[in-house]
Amino acid sequence: MRADRLLEDIVNGKRMTDEEFVKLWQEADFFALGKAADARRQKIFGHNLATFIIDRNINYTNICSCRCKFCAFYRTREAKDAYVIDREALWAKIEEAIDLGATQLMIQGGLNEELDITFFTDMFKDIKARYNITLHSLSAPEISFIAKISGLSIKETLLRLKEAGLDSLPGGGAEILHDDVRREISPNKISTEEWLSIMKTAHEIGLASTATMMMGSIEKLEHQLYHLHQIRDLQDQTGGFRAFIVWTYQPGNNMLAGDKISSLYYLRFLALSRLYLDNFKHIQGSWVTQGKEIGQLSLLFGADDLGSIMIEENVVRAAGTFYKMKKEEMISLIRSAGRIPAQRDTSYNILQIF
Ligand code: SF4
């Protein structure tokens, strides 16, 4: 079938096979792909809102034993600038975030052997006792590590964290869900199967999550497609992923080095992700790793959301990439892409339309 006919069928709801993904990657016109992804988005939503959230990313520790090759953030325990956050610093960060309109905290950090489950349950309970804010926190590798050093099962760990106030999980630590790639870029991190299994357990106990991908390090298209296939399959089973978020690898200050992926590759992949992931409602465009203009273009290539106005983002910044944005700027950016800006919460409820 010709690429344009195939795109038309997919926009109308046909599920894309892996072979068709490859065919469209190779043959479809760049703008035709963008147009199809946008048509699919329009069919799902029936409106032209583009959403964002205000949140703060708080890294509770930079001490990490995992030593991923792409990471510029982690430190050894002995490093001069190694830290574990104390309550005073935590309160100051949260209060500053709330003053700026934040509704969500992404609390994430390194895999630090000294921090077992009580560190997290105490921290979450203390936060919830003081503030009305959503905890979208701890990625799957952190959950696995906390379970291991606390001698608990994944399910018990998640249940205790949920009871202490954890609301949902970010999809971090997925990088590329293919073990050939994981062995190279993050050999000490959890496997594809473990990442998927933690997400499955989280969904089963009522913790929704997002699914992420860090593309553009050493992997090939076949690995990226395998990743999409895995998360689409799990979404068929649980329906627990709220969104798909693809980031691009930042080759600064780390062991892996290499080049940045081109924006054209990113946009082409984003459009195909919208069309392939027919069971995902929200697809996020990344202005944090791609810059504001490409973030804006992502809205024309299938994205319905631009993620967060990050009050603090240390991991991408440590790699030398730091785009900052104020709420007003986000609103005007979305407007000039021809979309209606709206602030959302973690569950994608609209809080305010601008
Ligand atoms: S990416 Fe996360 S797990 Fe890997 S070294 Fe950095 S902080 Fe540690």
UniProtKB/TrEMBL annotation:
Residues annotated as binding [4Fe-4S] cluster are 64, 68, 71
The source's domain of life comes to Bacteria
The GO terms describing molecular function are: 4 iron, 4 sulfur cluster binding; 7,8-didemethyl-8-hydroxy-5-deazariboflavin synthase activity; iron ion binding; oxidoreductase activity, acting on X-H and Y-H to form an X-Y bond; transferase activity, transferring alkyl or aryl (other than methyl) groups
Cofactor detail note: Binds 1 [4Fe-4S] cluster. The cluster is coordinated with 3 cysteines and an exchangeable S-adenosyl-L-methionine.
Q: Which organism is it from?
A: Thermosyntropha lipolytica DSM 11003
Q: Provide the residue positions that the database annotates as binding S-adenosyl-L-methionine.
A: 70, 175
Function as written in the Swiss-Prot or TrEMBL entry:
Radical SAM enzyme that catalyzes the cyclization of dehypoxanthine futalosine (DHFL) into cyclic dehypoxanthine futalosine (CDHFL), a step in the biosynthesis of menaquinone (MK, vitamin K2).
What keywords sit in the KW lines?
4Fe-4S, Iron, Iron-sulfur, Menaquinone biosynthesis, Metal-binding, Oxidoreductase, S-adenosyl-L-methionine
Q: What is this protein called?
A: Cyclic dehypoxanthine futalosine synthase
Its catalytic activity? dehypoxanthine futalosine + S-adenosyl-L-methionine = cyclic dehypoxanthinylfutalosinate + 5'-deoxyadenosine + L-methionine + H(+)
